[in-house]
Amino acid sequence: MKHNFGAGPGILPQEVLKQAAAAVINFNGTGLSLLEISHRSAEFEAVLDEAVSLVKELFEVPSGYSVLFLQGGASTQFAMVPYNLLPEGGKAAYVESGVWANKALKEAKYFGTVDVVATSKESNFTYIPKDFEVPADAAYLHITSNNTIYGTQLQQFPSSPVPLVCDMSSDIFSRKVNVADFGLIYAGAQKNMGPAGVTLVIVKDDILGKVDRKIPAMFNYQTQIEGGSMYNTPPVFAIYVSMLTLNWLKAKGGVEAIEKDNLAKSKALYTEIDRNPLFKAVAVPEDRSHMNVCFVAENPEHEKPFLKLCDEKGIVGLKGHRSVGGFRASIYNALPITSVHVLIETMQEFAEKNK
Ligand code: PLP
């Protein structure tokens, strides 16, 4: 058995993979593959409806918000957000807490003025800047809830005088969030919600329609809302597997229950990193992520042999991002705590061998 600590695409529940595999051959007894049924068929419309209602239920989405399943990944949202929300000649506020936030703000510059209200670039993003003021005339404030590459996570969301836009790609559905505090939430599915190919957007309807520019249909939230995420052919497989994963989460007790499991996993791992003299955590303690645990070897020469030992134990996807180095244990919702225990035992065995 493999222990999949990969950052993205992330691990999916085994039972979801089995159901998805069966549906590729024969979808719900239709005698057709999920990949060949019409997206306008009653069978698929039921899947999309169920996926939307699971998002609403699990995240307690209040009325006045639309739930969309779009394409193009979170990276398309980097542009779609300012396209739809940043008026000509207006400005938007961004917190630069990592490379993804940087990519988001660069896209916004195509549409208006970008005010980077805070950055932690000088420390290679080992913390999330929290001391900033948001200009009252900004169209929105953009933040990243979990910085996948650096293993930092906002433990408390800032209060904002303007609509709060949040990239939740790497911690969506991992913890309870008050959706009413946000103007727009987006997330590429492939870490905690499903396979690559679909992007979740939860948008407050009344923040739309405030820009004058013409927006091409596919990039226009309003068109997507009116089309019920089916303006064009939707990514049927990715939506189906997301729906299965959300159902799996519901059966586990929902977001509150998984948050407890996630805290138990991250606590066990950080405790070992802090205790083990061979390893050191990357992020400052108060911003440590419960999804991506980044750590390095005190002695860089230990890096390769540790990864080799991990490989022997069936631990995969542990190598850190090239801009941070070391190791990154992504402990997304579907990763069982038993895999975390295997990693901890491997760290202990390695320390024993390298005393
Ligand atoms: N935002 C965050 C926080 C990410 O971790 C990633 C990818 O890892 C992205 C955005 C980009 O997502 P996508 O590949 O779906 O465009």
From TrEMBL:
Compartments (UniProt record): Cytoplasm
Coarse class of the protein's main subcellular location: cytoplasm
Pathway: Amino-acid biosynthesis; L-serine biosynthesis; L-serine from 3-phospho-D-glycerate: step 2/3; Cofactor biosynthesis; pyridoxine 5'-phosphate biosynthesis; pyridoxine 5'-phosphate from D-erythrose 4-phosphate: step 3/5
Keyword Transferase: yes
PTM annotation (N6-(pyridoxal phosphate)lysine): residues: K191
Residue span(s) of domain Aminotransferase class V: 4-336
InterPro entries given in the database record: Aminotrans_V_dom, Aminotrans_V_PyrdxlP_BS, Pser_aminoTfrase, PyrdxlP-dep_Trfase, PyrdxlP-dep_Trfase_major, PyrdxlP-dep_Trfase_small
Reactions this protein catalyses: O-phospho-L-serine + 2-oxoglutarate = 3-phosphooxypyruvate + L-glutamate; 4-(phosphooxy)-L-threonine + 2-oxoglutarate = (R)-3-hydroxy-2-oxo-4-phosphooxybutanoate + L-glutamate
Function: Catalyzes the reversible conversion of 3-phosphohydroxypyruvate to phosphoserine and of 3-hydroxy-2-oxo-4-phosphonooxybutanoate to phosphohydroxythreonine.
HAMAP family linked: SerC_aminotrans_5 (MF_00160)
Family: Belongs to the class-V pyridoxal-phosphate-dependent aminotransferase family. SerC subfamily.
Name of the featured protein: Phosphoserine aminotransferase
